[in-house]
Give the backbone structure.
Amino acid sequence: MTTPTRSEVAAVQRELRRDARLEWRVLLKAGVALVLVTAAVLLRELAL
Amino acid sequence: MSLDWTAVMTTALVTLLVVFVLVGTVPVWATALQYAVLPFHAVINHYGKAGYACPRVAVIVPAWNEALVLGAAIDRLLQLDYPPDRLRIYVVDDASTDATPEVVRALALAHPGRVVHLRRDRGGEGKAHTLNHGISIVLAEPWAEAILIMDADVIFAADSLRKMTRHFADPKVGAVTAYIAEGSADRNAITRFIGIEYVMAQLGSRRAQNVLGAIACLAGGAQLHTRANLEAIGGRIPTGTLAEDTMATFESQLRGRRMVFEPHALVLAEEPRTIRALWKQRLRWARGNVQVTKHYRQLWFRPSRTHRLGGIAFGLIWFSVLLLPVMMVLAAVGLVGLMWLHSSLAAFVFSLMWIAAAVVYVYSMLVAVQLDPRTGLRSWREAILFPGIGSLILMAVAISPPLVELVWAQLGVVVEGSTELALLVAMYVWGPVAMLGAWLARVVEPVPVLGWLLSRVLLYVVGYGSLLCAITVDAYVQEWRRADMTWSKTEKVGRVLG
């Protein structure tokens, strides 16, 4: 493999940090889904 | 004191039937497990070990009569955001009888040294053999440091290869795969269902597999191997099964190499537009999975220090897909048996099963549509109706029995006696009935005039999952009969615009 320049390494690191940050959004999205499902289950328990 | 053997036998039988129903819920728990694990991808991922890596990549494109799609796929490869001097494209023309050779020759002429035409005089042996022809030529020279295996119809996003190669900064990684999304410009019900399925199976489940450390399959349309990894598995893609991509994935992991799914590397693919075409494609996949299961029979549920394929969680995920039809039939047998022996217990476990299914379906679908909002928005009907109208009704029955009684009252229908019994049986055996409905949808699809409409109505009623289950049953039958394993290609006409 080639020896990268400092700017190439920095660009890849930036992109990796951005994609890693996006993975935290998956946690948030799962949290949103969990809250909605829990609310639906609670509503059902209250309604019955 | 004498034992009441009738009571003992009845209790034993009731217990067995309850176990049958519980086995029927295993796929629900497997999905729940994957979507519970999925959020941990925020912390358990490979980005910390990834970095700059720009290997010389040989792209191998197997092509048999791909003239309609090949040009666009290679054009997009040539436009990748990747150093041109570090990318070579080898098209393995598998004795095509259409204009494929002319298309490739023209591209090779326009891009000398970057596009290479490899022609096989005798073709039709299947994708793995075609790939191996190209791999043997590529590995015979020292130039390639990584080998990208793809399909002739897929379109790589400009940054996809770069996002895949960065994982090779970690020498433990043997291969990386991308997110293959359904990319047809003119979508229909089938491609929209496939779009949702791919979001759930890749952006959802494969992320979870990243966390668990065992990948079931590197997608055959975008498999990037290091040279060392391909050489370690014998310098060739394993032949002998219909699931050459899964075999390569397993072989790599058995040698202790890590596989990574890169969710931010996007690849668009053209998928089947009819039930029959989908059946043909998935029958090959499902039969391949049956063969892989048999081939690695010593592997399952036997944890190892070298790999995670023998883990309990991975085994649960694998078999919940492979044995889904069996589990559905077991659940139906269990429920009908309980109905005769212990009707209130039957009603209880039925509710439990469908409430669990409803909760897991809503949660996983809500997560999935957020993971790829574009697909979620354009396929919202298929996302809602993914389990089928029949299953959605059963979920409603389980969640809110008073609501159902209200509906009956509004309709003026009195449900009692034989009507009630018939309805109960219909609800309890819905799983196998839905599979039959899916099979019927395939049968009626080519019938002129009403066939298309009836097949679509049936598909929405029984659900996409039941269609895949019915195909898996067909795979069992084909494998049991040792049916011909001739490679049947999925027709592609170039609907992906990218």
